[in-house]
């Protein structure tokens, strides 16, 4: 099983999205963000697929999805 990462995204003009994705997909997403800022990127998540216009993303935050034991 691939490592999971929790993310939050903020958009120009307001609004946000959050979810969990695999590390490989997140790295591809980060590459698109640091590139030309053009185009649409696809990010598979735990609840579906996000199709995001790179130029409309204001900020992104990520944290590792840690395994938790307990109640």
Key features of this structure:
single chain, 71 residues, alpha+beta, 3-stranded antiparallel β-sheet, two-stranded antiparallel ribbon, 1 helix, globular
What does the secondary structure layout of this molecule look like, with pairings?
Layout: E1 4-11, E2 16-22, H1 23-34, E3 40-45, E4 48-53, E5 57-64
Antiparallel strand pairs: 1-2, 1-5, 3-4
Distance between termini? Answer: 23 Å
* Range of strand content: over 45%
Secondary structure tally, helices? 1
SSE ordering:
EEHEEE
Mean pLDDT over all positions:
89
Q: Give the CA-based shape.
A: globular
**Compute the gyration radius: what is it?**
13 Å
Number of strands: 5
Give the neighbour order of strands across the main sheet: 2-1-5
Q: How many structural domains does the protein architecture include?
A: 1
Main sheet characteristics:
3 strands, antiparallel
Parts with pLDDT < 50 across at least 5 consecutive residues = none
| Helix fraction by DSSP (H/I, runs of at least 4) | 10-25%
Structural class by helix and strand composition: alpha+beta
């Amino acid at each position: 099983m691939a490592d999971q990462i929790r993310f939050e995204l903020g958009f120009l003009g307001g609004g946000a999205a959050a979810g969990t994705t695999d590390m490989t997909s997140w790295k591809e997403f980060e590459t698109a963000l640091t590139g030309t800022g053009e185009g649409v990127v696809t990010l598979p998540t735990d609840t579906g697929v996000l199709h995001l216009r790179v130029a409309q993303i204001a900020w992104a935050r990520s944290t590792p999805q840690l395994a938790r034991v307990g109640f």
